[in-house]
Design a protein that fits this description.
252 residues, alpha/beta, TIM Barrel, 5-stranded parallel sheet, 4-stranded mixed sheet, 7 helices, 37% helix, globular
Length: 252
C-alpha cells in the first residue's frame, strides 16, 4: 500500500470518527453509443450501487444509447455541450463554449443540445450542462437556466453553490487520467495527495463540506490501470464516510 492510500484511509477514518458524511458523485464524459466500455462502466456502477452521470455529446448521440440508459438503474444522462468541437484560438486551451465565441452562438448550441437529448432520453435526462474540457464563458451562465438547465458542471472546488440564479454548480474534483502523458493512469500520489488535502480542508471547515465530491472518468479511454484505480478509490470512499449523490432535478 502506498503512502497516498495510507493517508487517504487515515483521513477517512477521522471523518467516520467525527460522524461526518461525504456526498460523493460520479460523472463520466463523452458517451455517444453503447459500447463494451459503457457496459463495463454500468457493471461497476451496479456493483457499487453508485449512479453515474453520463455526459452525452448531443450531436453524435445514437438512439441505441437511450435504450441502454432505459435498461440501467445507474446511468443518468446529462448534456455534454453540443458537438465536442474546439472553438478556441490555437494558442488557447481547448474549449467549445469559451469566452472567444459569441454568446448567442454558444447559447444556441447549448439549447440544441438539451433539445436533442430530451428527444432521445425523455424524462431520464437530467438538466445539467457539462461543457467539454470543463471550460465555459462566464457570460453564458446567467442564460442557461432560461434554457431549462438547472446545473452546470466543470472541474475543481466551486466558488459558490450557485453559478448563477437558478443554476447550481456541481463540479468534479478527481481525474485519474494522465492527459499530458500516455493517457493511462496518472501517478496515484498526484491524485491522492490533493484529494487528502481537500478532505482535510473540508473536515476542518476551511472548505465547503456540503459540496458533492466528484469523480470524473472517461470510459472510452480507460485501460486496466484506470479501471482498477477507480474501483479501489470508490470502494474505499463508500466503505468510509461517503454517500452516493445523484442529481435528481427534473427538466422544467
Amino acid at each position: 500500500m502506498t503512502n497516498g492510500w495510507d493517508a487517504l484511509d487515515a483521513e477517512l477514518t477521522l471523518w467516520s470518527r467525527e460522524g461526518l458524511h461525504l456526498p460523493l458523485w460520479w460523472r463520466d464524459d463523452d458517451a455517444v453509443a453503447p459500447t463494451a466500455a459503457l457496459g463495463r462502466l454500468e457493471d461497476l456502477a451496479g456493483q457499487l450501487d453508485m449512479p453515474v452521470h453520463l455526459a452525452v455529446i448531443p450531436r453524435a448521440a445514437e438512439a441505441e444509447l437511450a435504450g441502454a440508459v432505459r435498461r440501467s438503474r445507474h446511468l443518468v444522462p446529462v448534456v455534454h455541450g453540443w458537438a465536442h468541437v474546439n472553438h478556441a484560438p490555437a494558442e488557447a486551451k481547448k474549449s467549445e463554449f469559451g469566452s472567444t465565441r459569441p454568446v448567442d452562438a454558444a447559447l444556441n448550441e447549448a439549447e440544441q443540445g438539451i433539445a436533442r437529448l430530451k428527444a432521445l432520453f425523455g424524462p431520464d435526462l437530467r438538466p445539467m450542462f457539462v461543457p467539454p474540457w470543463n471550460r465555459i464563458s462566464a457570460a453564458m451562465l446567467p442564460w442557461l437556466a432560461g434554457l431549462d438547465y438547472a446545473a452546470v458542471s466543470t472541474f475543481g472546488p466551486r466558488k459558490r453553490a450557485q453559478a448563477a440564479p437558478g443554476l447550481l454548480q456541481i463540479n468534479t474534483h478527481i481525474d485519474p487520467v494522465d492527459w499530458h502523458g500516455d493517457r493511462s493512469l496518472l501517478d496515484s500520489e498526484l491524485i491522492l495527495a490533493p484529494l487528502v488535502a481537500q478532505l482535510q480542508a473540508r473536515r476542518a471547515g476551511s472548505a465547503e463540506r456540503a459540496e458533492p465530491l466528484g469523480l470524473l472518468t472517461h470510459h472510452l479511454i480507460h485501460d486496466e490501470k484506470i479501471w482498477a484505480f477507480c474501483e479501489t478509490l470508490l470502494r474505499r470512499l463508500l466503505d468510509g464516510p461517503a454517500r452516493p449523490w445523484r442529481f435528481d432535478e427534473r427538466i422544467g
